[in-house]
Amino acid sequence: MSKESRVKDLSLAGRGREQLYWAERNMPVLMEIRKRFEREKPLSGLTVAACLHVTKETGVLVRTLAAGGARVVLIPSNPLSTQDEVAAALAQEGVYVYAWRGMSEREYYNAIGFALSFNPAITLDDGADLTATIHKIRYGVRDQSIEYVYEVAGPLDGERLVSGLRGGTEETTTGVIRLRALKNAGKLVYPIIAVNESYTKYLFDNRYGTGQSTWDGVMRATNLLVAGKNVVVAGYGWVGRGIAIRARGLGARRVILVEVDPVRALEAVFDGFEVMPMDKAAEVGDIFITATGNIRAVSLGHIFKMKDGAVLANAGHFNVEIDVAGLERVAVAKKTIRPYLEEYTLPNGRRVYLIGEGRLVNLVAAEGHPSEVMDLSFANQALAAEYIAKNKLAVDVYKLPDEIDREVARLKLKTMGVELEELTEEQRRYISSWELGT
């Protein structure tokens, strides 16, 4: 098969380089790592397959991996999140890119086939579709997605594919859940670093990054005023926390949390939010945002209880949290109101508005997380790839070593001009001793 890149339009590359320049200006930690990678070439001779959202921030990571000596193959982790100008710019620079905005399901899995045809040594994943596909091939699963993979890659030898893999990374909560399920089933076939479990990833990316970019997507798609409205957030993990905090900051009249975990629900209450089941929240909400990582957090039954004019958005990785298929089935009318905003008329005459087909609202209707927060996430990704390259890992799901996490935080603070306090020798002795007390 052809190893040539496939993007929407190479003539967009000039605009893509401008976007990459702006991202690099705001990602100083990753740029510091790139300087070291250029000197040391820790990824020399290795092929890295990255299944990530093809954004300007991802482009900065890809350039950093290439600076470290890697041959990089980039494919999208979502059919609607690719920034075509960035894909074009990277393809012109020698990165193998197979991505364009608006891919069909077939084209999406064709892209995975393209990446696997390079027999990568390291995989970087966001949602675990690439990793799961490798496992399907290894275990001989032949579903429609695998048929699409083989259309581009040809039949792949699962044993040979796995034998060449040193390890992989996973960027999101949804993906880590899938990978732990693989491990618990005794089916995981190569080591994975759960980058999502690094403090400098989930505390900042999920809370501050998604908190801001989700509302950016909602407001670009609708241009509605948040102040005075009732906002319902499904899920009070780190993503849900960020969305709820920003809703309150934007002046929402009520911020209601829907949660199944009693500890998280209690935390939401103590943080000053209302907590109730979706059945009740559906009757009072104006804007609904899902962040659970689970299917049908907003079901068809919930939708029928909603006010005329309710807005639905999803901030979880996959488009399964809102029952879009059910909505499509029962709606008596559907029309596009604005880019990425569809109006559905229900049999009861009420209308609901769905943003971005129920896919990741911040990447479909906006540009994803701000570069400053992706600086932390992708610094973790780059250092995780280096860690895999330098260490022979047993098959397991790992957390990135804490010292790497702290180094990323230290570098970020340094670039922000923030100084840390230092322990005195007396303080070091005190916290390392069991004899000293009151």
Features:
Rossmann fold; Adenosylhomocysteinase; alpha/beta; seven-stranded parallel beta sheet; 19 helices; 438 residues; eight-stranded mixed beta sheet; 2 domains
Write structural notes for this entry.
The protein is α/β, with parallel strands linked by helices and 438 residues long. It has 2 domains: 10-201 and 369-415, 3-Layer(aba) Sandwich (Rossmann fold); 208-364, Rossmann fold, CATH 3.40.50.720. 47% of the residues lie in helices and 14% in strands. It is built from 19 helices and 15 strands. It has helices spanning 13-25, 28-40, 56-67, 84-92, 105-116, 129-138, 144-153, 158-163, 173-184, 199-222, 238-249, 262-270, 278-284, 300-304, 324-330, 361-364, 371-390, 402-415, 425-431, and strands at residues 47-51, 71-75, 96-97, 122-125, 167-170, 192-194, 230-234, 254-258, 274-275, 287-290, 310-314, 333-338, 341-345, 351-355, 397-398. Helix 11 (238-249) links the parallel strand 7 and strand 8 (254-258). Helix 2 packs parallel to helix 3 (56-67), helix 2 (28-40) packs parallel to helix 17 (371-390) and helix 10 crosses helix 11. The model has no long low-confidence stretch (mean pLDDT 96).
